[in-house]
UniProtKB/TrEMBL annotation:
Residue spans crossing the bilayer: 58-76, 107-127, 139-160, 175-196, 203-223, 229-248
Organism this protein belongs to: Nelumbo nucifera
Any one Gene Ontology molecular-function term assigned to this protein's record: transmembrane transporter activity
Keywords in alphabetical order: Membrane, Transmembrane, Transmembrane helix
Keyword Transmembrane helix: yes
Membrane topology summary: Multi-pass membrane protein
Entry's Gene Ontology cellular component terms: membrane
Subcellular location: Membrane
Protein name: WAT1-related protein
SUPFAM superfamilies documented for this protein: Multidrug resistance efflux transporter EmrE (SSF103481)
Source organism, top-level taxon: Eukaryota
Alphabetized PANTHER family for the sequence: WAT1-RELATED PROTEIN
């Protein structure tokens, strides 16, 4: 399966990119995924763009607005709205700004690797969407995807990690995290992702990437009692506007396509002679 090497390559590029730059830059570049997927979907004719129609304009502008909101959340912190931790002070904000203003010497190389990672993930969405469109069997595809991905990552890990103690599992939080990642982060996520790709296409799935930031902001401030900042609120609002603009454009496009299909079916029925 071609999607397995793409997935493993994307993870390697992301880890190397983060090591060469920073998690902040990784988050910023990663949130450009909807733009990459949108362009590739247009190239491979999986998506139609009519700039003269309202739904086409909504899809294009919504994608750009959503990506802009993701950048706002990543790079702009702003004043604290709800302060729940004494550790969130001005020194942390100064350190955050230093990471952006004074990057490491390998910052450009790391950004290049992260950009390649996002492009590979975008291609992965396109490949998976084409596979699901040809073979309407999400469960077997998800099974073989996880199976071959496990084999490939195991072989790579055996070469990269030679210390036997690193493979020892203990009944603690680490084991719970591994089981959770295997069930929800790999198996269920792959199945849901494939099902949505088959139903609604790659652009629809990619649009949830920046929207995940909104969920992270809400859950971290609610359950982890993290401080809530103005930048997170403003960026989340911008992401929500762009997200729902794209969803409205897609719904409008589907409705028009359905109406055209029903009209064509009625016209064909009327032309059939009665015997």
């Amino acid at each position: 399966m071609a999607c397995v090497p793409c997935s493993c390559t994307a993870q390697i590029l992301q880890f190397e990119g983060i090591r060469s730059s920073s998690p902040t830059l990784s988050s910023a570049v990663d949130n450009t995924l909807p733009a990459f997927v949108f362009i590739l979907a247009l190239i491979f004719r999986m998506e139609r763009l009519s700039l003269k129609s309202s739904y086409g304009q909504a899809k294009l502008l919504g994608t750009l607005v959503s990506v802009t909101g993701a950048f706002v959340v990543t790079f702009y912190r702003g004043p604290s709205i709800i302060r729940t931790s004494s550790t969130s002070n001005s020194s942390d904000h100064h350190h955050h700004q230093q990471l952006l203003l004074f990057p490491k010497s390998s910052w450009v190389f790391g950004g290049f690797l992260l950009s390649l990672h996002t492009l590979v993930v975008a291609f992965l969405h396109i490949i998976q969407a084409s596979i699901v469109n040809d073979y309407q069997a999400e469960f077997p595809i998800a099974f073989f995807y996880c199976f071959f991905a496990s084999i490939q990552t195991t072989l790579i890990s055996l070469v990269a990690e030679r210390d036997p103690s690193a493979w020892r599992l203990r009944p603690n939080l680490e084991l719970i995290a591994i089981i959770y990642a295997a069930i929800f982060g790999c198996a269920i996520r792959s199945l849901v992702n494939l099902w949505c790709l088959g139903k609604n296409g790659p652009v629809y799935v990619a649009m949830f990437k920046p929207f995940g930031i909104v969920i992270a902001v809400v859950t971290s401030s609610t359950f982890l009692r993290d401080s809530l900042y103005l930048g997170s609120v403003v960026g989340s609002a911008i992401i929500s506007v762009g997200f729902y603009a794209v969803m409205w454009g897609k719904a409008k496009e589907w409705k028009i396509a359905k109406d055209i299909e029903e009209y064509s079916l009625m016209s064909t029925t009327e032309r059939v002679p009665l015997l």
